[in-house]
């Protein structure tokens, strides 16, 4: 059985890996300037994680750890604030 701490560590590692682009192909010139922000669906499609979309914006992601496999739920939401250029923050 997975403890809350084990799930938190797995979720933190997953978020850090996705945010760092560890599973994405080489960055284009546009990505290097920070002009393009990737969505959760595009990050998941470029990753090696098995995932399934449950609802619009809600995903179940399979994460393998030393203790075995576990599911992590992830949801992409639009924040109430904006980037400096006026685009949405997700």
Summarize the structure.
The chain has three helices and three strands, in the order αααβββ. The chain has helices at 4-20, 29-32, 40-46, and strands spanning 51-55, 58-65, 68-75.
Give the secondary structure arrangement, pairings included.
Elements: H1 4-20, H2 29-32, H3 40-46, E1 51-55, E2 58-65, E3 68-75
Antiparallel strand pairs: 1-2, 2-3
Keywords:
90 residues; alpha+beta; 3 helices; 31% helix
Could you characterize what this model shows?
With 90 residues, the protein is α+β, with helices and mostly antiparallel strands. 31% of the residues lie in helices and 23% in strands. It has 3 helices and 3 strands. It has helices at 4-20, 29-32, 40-46, and strands at residues 51-55, 58-65, 68-75. The protein has a 3-stranded antiparallel beta sheet with strand order 1-2-3, covered by helices on one side. A hairpin with a 2-residue loop joins strand 1 and strand 2 (58-65). The longest helix has 17 residues, at 4-20. It is elongated. The N and C termini lie far apart (32 Å). Mean pLDDT is 74; it is low at 24-35.
What low-confidence regions span 5 or more consecutive residues with pLDDT below 50? 24-35
- Number of helical segments? 3
Reported for the largest beta sheet, the result is: 3 strands, antiparallel
Q: Work out the strand percent.
A: 15-25%
**Count of beta strands:** 3
Estimated helix fraction: 25-40%
Which overall shape is indicated by the principal axes computed on the Cα atoms?
elongated
